[in-house]
Amino acid sequence: MNIKVMKFGGTSVGDADCIRRASRIVAEAARQDHIVVVVSAMSGVTNRLITAANESARGDLAEFRKLVEQLRAEHLTAASALVNDEKQLAALITELENVTNDVSNLCQGIALLRELTPRTLAAVSSIGERLSARLMAGALSGLGVPAAVVDATEVIITDDEYSQAEPLMDQVRRRSAEKLLPLVDQNRTPVVTGFIGATVEGTLTTLGRGGSDYSATTLGAALDADEILIWTDVDGVLTADPRLVPNARLLREISYNEAAELAYFGAKVLHPKTLRPVAEAEIPVWIRNSFAPERAGTKITKSGHPTSDGVRGITAISNVSLITVGGRGMVGVVGVAAKTFAAVASVRANVLLISQSSSENAICLIVDAVDAARTMKALRTAFASDLVHHDVEHITANPDIAIVAVVGEKMCGTPGIAGRTFSALGRKGINIIAIAQGSSEYNVSFVVEAKTMRDAVVAIHDEFKLHLPAVRSEQEIVAGFDPVHLAS
Ligand code: ADP
Ligand code: ASP
Ligand code: MG
């Protein structure tokens, strides 16, 4: 039998009805294949846990007590709706109570010390997945599918970047063979907590917000799975975020590179690192709608059914900050770029885009909004004497901007894409603040004012007529592919 990893996102396990629907999808698939399940927390729970941790650090105990009570009530209600067997229900309730007691103790500790370390925040954030995995296992057992909860801390071994941890693949492979394969061999379905991992010493870590997708592909690669299915609340990867572009169209097949690029520049449907573990082994990843499991979804593969004109999707990201290091004295001065990026690297800020004007009097870079303050501090320290001598005249941060990226595998070989993009924006009167060429051959990205982001995405989507089925590529014609059926 084949192994398939199935990940269910927050909305797909949002309440008892959703968990029931998800467990039916697993039960059906488990008739043919071995399924390893990965679950996110119920939607909204991780946000609330992080708020509670922060309130506890300010000494506000009322907020976290209220939250723990709500969490307990919501999960116990779901448990009662999902599990009929009295003995099983009682055991499940005890487990859920134990996990919610953990969060109580953690928040009390935070409140006492008035200190919230990244390590403690990771422990608090993990609670949602520890609860939802137990509910999913209960629901599966109720359907006659023997299931076992596996805490990812036992399998996904990571480095010690507590809030953005990187899995250590050799160790994950070994642990998966030790912990997951024996269950699979006994025909028991492992239900693994998404989002979390642990260091070699056993301290809990998280893989970053939205990280359950990454958990799924990490496990899929470690198990040499045949496929990974990411079940979410949309039909698959669309040509743009449907919240920005209502007529965005489903992409039936795209490449690892295209999907990774869309995710990197803000397509929330996938965590940016999701495809890293599986691209080399060419394990297909499907994005499917858990609310409409009869629909085919998007398949992510190596070649991704390239279309002839190149542009596949448009994406945008707004919670970023544009940092500019500038001054006339910088012209021709050797080492300014090196000094800039050394300073940025010293605070481990994530740089999304870099642009330098040819006259060399400004270097622009874009970092995540959360990294902006410490990046500015590091730059001001690094350039302290240059600022005094006016070699560098200003270091500024502008948070009111957005990056828009036009993504497609074959774009670089197609002339005129940048020209058409910028003309479309010009016609709408949208001002381009900076352009990053060649940040990767799969995208053209540029910076606009945040308030024009939606209009920019819609204008480009219209310009490339992405709401219409793609022009048939030679491959599709050979395969007898009918693009009319692609329209969603
Ligand atoms: P989950 O909880 O299942 O992980 P997410 O909320 O993280 O789901 O991701 C799904 C959401 O991603 C969709 O509801 C949609 O609004 C958003 N999204 C953004 N860009 C895209 C895109 N290009 N295609 C599909 N969905 C997108
Ligand atoms: N629950 C985590 C989050 O909200 C991880 C995930 O949903 O993928 O970030
Ligand atoms: Mg997600």
Task: Please name the defining characteristics of this protein.
488 residues, eight-stranded mixed β-sheet, binds adenosine-5'-diphosphate, disordered C terminus, 21% strand, alpha/beta, binds magnesium ion, 16 strands, six-stranded antiparallel β-sheet
Shape: globular
Our count of helices gives 17
Largest sheet: 8 strands, mixed
Structural class call reads alpha/beta
Query: What level of helicity do the residues show?
Result: 40-55%
List cofactors, ions and other ligands. adenosine-5'-diphosphate, aspartic acid, magnesium ion
Tell me the fraction of residues in β-strands, as a range.
15-25%
Distance between the termini: 33 Å
Instruction: List how many beta strands DSSP finds.
Output: 16
Overall mean pLDDT = 91
Low-confidence stretches: 472-488
Rg to the nearest angstrom? 24 Å
Strand order of the largest sheet: 3-4-2-1-7-9-10-8
